[in-house]
Write a structure and sequence with these properties.
Chain B: Keywords: Hydrolase, Phosphoprotein. Chain B: Its EC number is 3.1.3.3. Chain B: GO terms for molecular function: phosphatase activity. The structure holds 2 protein chains of 2 kinds. Chain A is α/β, with parallel strands linked by helices. Chain A is built from 4 helices and 7 strands; from the N terminus they run βββαββαβαβα. Chain A has one domain (about 5-105): 2-Layer Sandwich (Transcription Regulator spoIIAA), CATH 3.30.750.24. Chain A has a 5-stranded mixed beta sheet with strand order 1-2-4-6-7. A two-stranded parallel ribbon of chain A has the order 3-5. In chain A, α1 runs parallel beside α2. Chain B is of the alpha+beta class. Chain B has 2 domains: about 1-130, Response regulator (Rossmann fold), CATH 3.40.50; about 155-395, Phosphatase 2c, domain 1, CATH 3.60.40.10. In chain B, about 35% of the residues lie in helices and about 25% in strands. In chain B, the strands form 4 sheets. Chain B has a 6-stranded antiparallel beta sheet. The longest helix of chain B has about 50 residues, at about 110-155. The interface of A and B includes residues 34, 59, 68, 90 and 96 of A.
C-alpha cells in the first residue's frame, strides 16, 4: 500500500504499492512526489510494476511531476504492466518520458 | 429560555415555578404528563422540562418516553425529580432518556446549576441545528448550480444534424452530473466540415468547465480569431487549417500546470464534403472506427500523438483517407471500451467493433441506440464510472 522510495545508483526509485493509479490515488501520488522534489531529489525513477490500471488522472499526476521538476531533473518510468503500457502506447508517452522495461535497466542508464 | 415544571402537588409546583422564575427563566406549568405534552406542543420555545416522577394519568417516565419518541422537532432537556439516593429510579430514568436528576426535597442552589447545564446543552443543540440548516441550504444551492451547469453542458452539445452532405448523430452520458467529455461539428467553409471529440482528464466540475472553454473556442468558427481557420489576403480569403495545426494551436493555448493536472485527449477531423476526403488527427485519443456498411467491415484508424496540454512544442500527424457514400466514422471516449461488467471485465474495443458491425446497416440513430443497449447490458445498468460519448458521422455523397 502507498508509496515508498529508496536511493540506488544516484537515483531515487519510487515504488507505487497500489494496484490502481487512478483519480483516488492521483493527488496522494503527486503530493508524495512533490515532497521528494522539495527535499532535493531530482533523478526520479517510478517503479510501476505493481500497477495494473492507470487512468487519465494517474497519467496527469505523472505529468505534473515532470512539470514540477522543469529542467531541474528527470523523471523516468519503469516496469509498466501490459494495461499501463497500452495506455502509454495510445498516448505516445514515449515522446514525453523515458520508459524502461525494468527498474534495473532504468538504473543502468540504458534507454528502452 | 423557557422551562416547563411538571408536578401534581400544587404547592410544590408553585414553589418551583417561583424559584425558577426568579432565576430569570420563563416558566410554564403542567399538573401531569398528559398536560405537559399539550403545553410542549403549544409552546415551541420550551427547551427544558423539570418533571416529578409519580403523577396521575402520565408519570415522569412516561412523559420522558413520549418526548424521546420524536414527536417534537427540537431537543428537549429532561430533568427528573427523584427521591434521595434512589439508584433504581436513576437507572430507569436514564434508560428512557432523562438528561439529569434532581433530588427531592429540591436544593435551590443545585437546581440553579442543573438548569445552567440544561441551558448549555440546548444552546449547543440549537447552534448545531442552525449550522445544519445553513449547510443543507448551501448544499441545495450547490446542487441547483450543478443541475443548471449540466443544462448548460447539454445546450453546448450540437444537435443531431446534416451539414452539407454529412450526417451526425451521437449519444452522451456523463458519469456524474457533469462530465469532461465534449464533442462538436460545424461547417468551416462551403466545402469543409469539422468534427471533434475530446475527453478532459479527471471528472467533475474542473474538467467540465475546461471542456466548455475548449468547445467555445473550437465552435466559434466565424470569429476572426477562430482556431480552426484563418483569414488571408487573397481569395477565398480563408485558409482552413489542417487538423494537426489546430491541435498544435490548442496545445499552445492550454498548457497544464503542475497543480491542476488538466489536459485532454482528442480527435479532430475535417471532411471535404464534395469529395469525401477526410483529414484526421488523433491526440492520445482512442482510434476512430471506420465503418463501411457496403462491405460490412469495421476498420480501425490507428491513433497516435500525445494528449493536448501536457508538454509545449509537440507535433501531431494528420492522416488522410477517402470516404465513399454510406461510409461512417465512429468516435468515442475510452469510457466505452473501459466500461466494466459486474465481474470487472472491460467492454473492449473488440466488443465495440462487433456491436458496430452488427448494427452498421441500421440508420445512424438506431445504430447508436443499439450499441448503447449492448453497453448497458454489459454493464448491467445505466450508471457508469466514466463519461461516455459515442459520435457517428455518415458521408452521404453528392
Amino acid at each position: 500500500m502507498g508509496f515508498s522510495n529508496r536511493q540506488e545508483a544516484d537515483k531515487t526509485v519510487v515504488e507505487i504499492g497500489e494496484a490502481r493509479l487512478d483519480a483516488s490515488q492521483a493527488t496522494p501520488f503527486r503530493d508524495y512526489m512533490f515532497d521528494l522534489i522539495n527535499q532535493g531529489q531530482t533523478q526520479l525513477v517510478v517503479d510501476l510494476s505493481q500497477v495494473n490500471f492507470m487512468d487519465s488522472s494517474g497519467l496527469g499526476a505523472i505529468v505534473s511531476v515532470l512539470k514540477q521538476l522543469g529542467d531541474k531533473g528527470a523523471v523516468e518510468l519503469a516496469s509498466p504492466q501490459k494495461a499501463v503500457n497500452d495506455l502509454f502506447d495510445l498516448t505516445c508517452m514515449d515522446q514525453i518520458f523515458t520508459i524502461h522495461p525494468s527498474v534495473d535497466q532504468a538504473l543502468s542508464g540504458k534507454p528502452h | 429560555m423557557d422551562v416547563l415544571i411538571v408536578e401534581d402537588a400544587r404547592d410544590q409546583r408553585r414553589l418551583l415555578c417561583k424559584v425558577v422564575g426568579k432565576l430569570g427563566y420563563r416558566v410554564h406549568e403542567a399538573e401531569d404528563g398528559l398536560q405537559a405534552l399539550q403545553v410542549l406542543a403549544a409552546e415551541p420555545a420550551i427547551r427544558v422540562v423539570i418533571s416529578d416522577w409519580m403523577m396521575p394519568n402520565l408519570d415522569g417516565i412516561g412523559l420522558c418516553e413520549a418526548i424521546r419518541s420524536g414527536q417534537f422537532n427540537r431537543y428537549i432537556y429532561f430533568i427528573l425529580l427523584t427521591g434521595k439516593a434512589d439508584k433504581e429510579a436513576m437507572v430507569e430514568g436514564l434508560s428512557v432518556g432523562a438528561d439529569d436528576f434532581l433530588n427531592k426535597p429540591v436544593d435551590y442552589r443545585e437546581l440553579e446549576v442543573r438548569l445552567k447545564g440544561g441551558q448549555r446543552v440546548t444552546e449547543l443543540e440549537q447552534a448545531l441545528d442552525q449550522k445544519n440548516h445553513q449547510l443543507s441550504k448551501a448544499l441545495d444551492i450547490v446542487q441547483q448550480d450543478l443541475a443548471s451547469a449540466a443544462e448548460t453542458q447539454e445546450r453546448l452539445l450540437a444537435s443531431p444534424a446534416t451539414i452539407q452532405n454529412i450526417g451526425f448523430d451521437w449519444h452522451f452520458k456523463p458519469s456524474k452530473i457533469l462530465g469532461g467529455d465534449m464533442f462538436g461539428y460545424h461547417a468551416v467553409d462551403d466545402e469543409h466540415v469539422m468534427f471533434y471529440q475530446l475527453d478532459v482528464a479527471g471528472h467533475g466540475i474542473p474538467s467540465a468547465l475546461f471542456s466548455f472553454a475548449i468547445n467555445n473556442l473550437l465552435m466559434d468558427v466565424d470569429s476572426p480569431s477562430s482556431i480552426v481557420r484563418e483569414q488571408t489576403t487573397k481569395a477565398p480569403y480563408i485558409r482552413v487549417l489542417p487538423p494537426d495545426e489546430v491541435v498544435s494551436r490548442l496545445n499552445h493555448r492550454f498548457q497544464t500546470t503542475a497543480d491542476n493536472m488538466l489536459y485532454f485527449t482528442m480527435s479532430y477531423g475535417l471532411i471535404h464534403s464534395p469529395s469525401g476526403r477526410v483529414r484526421l488527427c488523433h491526440a492520445g485519443h482512442p482510434p476512430t472506427l471506420w465503418l463501411r456498411p457496403g462491405e460490412g467491415t469495421v476498420h480501425r484508424l490507428e491513433s497516435g500523438g500525445v494528449p493536448v496540454g501536457m508538454v509545449p512544442g509537440m507535433n501531431w500527424r494528420t492522416e488522410e483517407f477517402q470516404l465513399r457514400p454510406g461510409d461512417r466514422l465512429f468516435l468515442y471516449s475510452d469510457g466505452l471500451t473501459e466500461c466494466e461488467n459486474p465481474d470487472g471485465e472491460m467492454f473492449s474495443e473488440q466488443r465495440l467493433c462487433a456491436a458496430l458491425q452488427d448494427a452498421g446497416s441500421q440508420p445512424m440513430n438506431t445504430m447508436i441506440s443499439q450499441v448503447w443497449s449492448d453497453l448497458c447490458q454489459w454493464r448491467g445498468g445505466e450508471s457508469f464510472d466514466d463519461d461516455m460519448t459515442g459520435l457517428v458521422l455518415e458521408y452521404q455523397g453528392e
